[in-house]
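Weekly structure sync, notes
Attendees: PL, DS, HV (note-taker this week)

Item 1: Phenylacetic acid degradation B
DS walked through the input record. Source organism listed as Natronorubrum tibetense GA33. Sequence as pasted into the shared doc:
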Amino acid sequence: MIWEVFRQEKEGEYHTHCGNVHAPDREMAKQFAAIQHGRRKPTNNMWVVPKEEVGEVDGEKYSFGGTTDKSYRWATGYNVTADDASEVVESSDEQEDAERRRSEVV
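Item 1 (cont.): predicted structure, written out as tokens:
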């Protein structure tokens, strides 16, 4: 029987799918999951689920959100010319100069 394994790295984070294990029963699946998927990375918690019990929500049958344009969240969503960015470049240069002077004093 195939069991799907979901791993939580830190408390409060989401569980993410990390693979599967082949085992005859739930207890063996938990042990195999801990050995194969729990020891490689920091792990707080694991879910071990029979593959047959994992359900799918088909995107063609149901409409999901996420159709709103949120390109404003990414720098690539803006048309910026070199003139518009001159203040940013100047500020960056000033910060580098200040850092250089601080390291010379020490």
